[in-house]
Design the sequence.
């Protein structure tokens, strides 16, 4: 897998699971490989086997939820994420829940969860980009711009943040500033 040979990785991990069907780490990796290959039905099947052994495995539950979303089952994905105990919910869980809310058009719920995720990772481009989308829908571009600019100030050499700043500035009608940021992203 580290050599980006997903097909071979799947074959090797399948063999490990054949040799030891209770090898949870192998099943966990197999679920991840299936998801990377776009085999979401198989990823779900393997993830559920892992969760029968390890019901508190947050990473596997998030992967399961992501595969369910890919198959157009956001309600099932939410149920999986809701099964994570509150003391184990971190930025990844909040981000996943926020993205599901976005998918279902629950803008305020999405905003709340994405802001909670951002508290742990204030300069995370994916979280900021999701918040930009939410804020654009609700007309709060100023909030999004402020968060993004703060992140850019903290990490001025992050190409993703520069790109995101350009997108936000463009959405706010600030073309020349947006162009400068996009050029900086390309430069980086």
Sequence:
């Amino acid at each position: 897998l580290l050599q980006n040979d997903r097909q071979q990785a799947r074959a090797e991990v399948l063999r490990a699971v054949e040799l030891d069907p209770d090898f949870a780490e192998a099943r966990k990796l197999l679920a991840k490989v299936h998801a990377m290959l776009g085999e979401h039905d198989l990823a779900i099947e393997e993830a559920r086997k892992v969760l029968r052994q390890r019901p508190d495995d947050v990473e596997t539950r998030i992967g399961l939820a992501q595969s369910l979303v890919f198959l157009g089952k956001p309600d099932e994905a939410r149920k999986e994420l809701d099964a994570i105990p509150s003391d184990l919910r971190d930025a990844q869980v909040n981000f996943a829940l926020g993205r599901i809310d976005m998918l279902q058009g629950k803008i305020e719920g999405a905003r709340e969860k994405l802001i909670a995720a951002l508290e742990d990772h204030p300069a995370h481009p994916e979280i900021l980009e999701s918040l930009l989308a939410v804020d654009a829908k609700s007309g709060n571009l100023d909030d999004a711009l402020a968060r993004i600019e703060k992140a850019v100030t903290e990490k001025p050499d992050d190409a993703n943040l520069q790109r995101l700043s350009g997108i936000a500035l463009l959405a706010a009608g600030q073309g020349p500033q947006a162009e400068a940021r996009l050029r900086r992203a390309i430069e980086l």
Remarks:
- The mean pLDDT is 94.
- Residues 167 and 173 are 10 Å apart (CA to CA).
- The two ends are 28 Å apart (CA to CA).
- The first helix runs from residue 6 to 19.
